Amino acid sequence: MPRAKTRVAILISGRGSNMVSLIEAATAPDYPAEIVLVASNRPEAGGLAHAEGAGIATRALDHRAYPDRASFDAALNAELEAAGIELVVLAGFMRIFSAGFVEAWAGRMINIHPSLLPLFRGVHTHEQALAAGVRLHGCTVHYVVPELDAGPIVAQAAVPVLPGDDADSLAARILVQEHRLYPRALALIAGGRARLEDGRVIFAEDVAAAEGALLSLSE
């Protein structure tokens, strides 16, 4: 009997370019995740229309309508539970969660960050990388923990920092890798081939041999 697909919600705040890559990947019959909900804290987020066009349920919860962070998080949690969500995927979701929300979804929520963590946490990562003079920069898929951008790493993709790069050119090249890496990382988790155990990501035996390259892409 085939394994049931993991029920996934994607959270966005804007155009959702990574969301688009995940939705496209999930159209494959053998993809182990089913995207059943896209939610945003901004009703004007452009990605909501794309998700609706793909036949995916959407929810807009304007964070400005809630008196505090905990109230917003409670409303979002209720939507996720009502949809039977098993895994939450952050794709440009520009809100910091309360510790209680993160703990409730511990081991069941992932994010993609535009740097090779643990380097350059927070915002303006491309400017940080250029200022530091690194020769490699990239993106990281990681589990979400209460500390910002500090969760166990699932997968990373690297690109060289080229002479003459500015933040925009570097960001554009990394975004290409984000769109490749995130669907693959989600597939590993949703398919049971990567899991969180004692604060570390444990991979199935075949992953390192068959997919080692995708875990550390470099162009």
Automatic annotation (TrEMBL):
One Pfam family of this chain: Formyl_trans_N
InterPro entries: Formyl_transf_N, Formyl_transf_N_sf, GART
Residues involved in N(1)-(5-phospho-beta-D-ribosyl)glycinamide binding: G16, S17, N18
Signal peptide: none
Binding site for (6R)-10-formyltetrahydrofolate: R69, N111
Site (Raises pKa of active site His): D149
Function comment: Catalyzes the transfer of a formyl group from 10-formyltetrahydrofolate to 5-phospho-ribosyl-glycinamide (GAR), producing 5-phospho-ribosyl-N-formylglycinamide (FGAR) and tetrahydrofolate.
Official protein name in the record: Phosphoribosylglycinamide formyltransferase
Lineage: Bacteria, Pseudomonadati, Pseudomonadota, Alphaproteobacteria, Hyphomicrobiales
